[in-house]
Amino acid sequence: MNTSELRRAVEAVCREFEDRFPGTRWREPLPDRQVTSEDGKQLVLRIYDVTAEGTVLRLADSTVIAELLAENFTCLGFSQPEVTGSPWGQLVCRIGRDVDGATLEWRGWRGMRLWLDVPLHLWR
Length: 124
Description:
Elements: H1 4-20, E1 25-26, E2 33-36, E3 43-56, H2 62-73, E4 84-85, E5 91-96, E6 103-119
């Protein structure tokens, strides 16, 4: 699997978040690393994990967030994003790609976090 296209999409959406939500400042991404998937069922390679400080996000922002993620990821085969709210006020969006099982997760409230996981077996 070639992840350069996925990395470019994440970088592009990060820039767009900065444009749409003034005050958003992204940190450097963490190094690639092996982690357990969010559902706990498999090992994945987290190839992009980045956080931002900035704007406090509200449920009213969910439409804009879904649009930004859709513009950058549905063209790469990811599912249509749907942003939901958690009981503790955090906004969450998780989208996947059937062809290889790659998943992108975005979370926001006081700042943002975005990461991209790919199944580890595709890298062996």
